[in-house]
Amino acid sequence: MNKLFFIVALAFFLSSNTEKKLSDNKIYLQENYIKIDKTDPLYTKGRNIFKRDCAACHYIGMDLLGTAPPLGGITKLRKKDWLYKYTRNSYQMYEQGDKIAKEIRSKKSWGLMTSFPNLTDSDLDAIYYFVEKRYEMTKKGIPVEK
Ligand code: HEC
User: Which residues belong to any copy of the Cytochrome c domain (predicted)?
Assistant: First the structure.
């Protein structure tokens, strides 16, 4: 009888202990996220502009298709000049026959992307820094901030 009680108590102790470990892990990820968030001004700047100008169409986790393609990894796929010009006025580039712009629009009948002629180079530096940082975080399982 005593032995049975001991086994039940041990099982209970072990299961509550693993639960605690899981939630510790969650809190750790959350703290980790907030740490990057608060101590990195470029990240914060990029996130604010992204939320204001891009997140309506491009998923902020950077890995899923929204009404626009996911942007994670884009800085490795395109040249910086192209990316900045495209963000400022993608449709003009399409109209002028830019090869990549035409290729993107030939694959799928996308809606039109808004133009952002007022974004400065430093705004765009911050946006694309945020895009790649956020993408790395998503790949590590760090949840998107609400
Ligand atoms: C109204 C919706 C909308 C908004 C807002 C928007 N986009 Fe887009 N974006 C699109 C669509 C649709 C495409 C795909 C078709 C195209 O390129 O025209 C696209 C494509 C892109 C591409 C090209 C991807 C590639 O494969 O090269 C980049 C880069 C991009 N967007 C960046 C941005 C950034 C940065 C912002 C915010 C400053 C932004 N977009 C805001 C809809 C949007």
Answer: 41-135
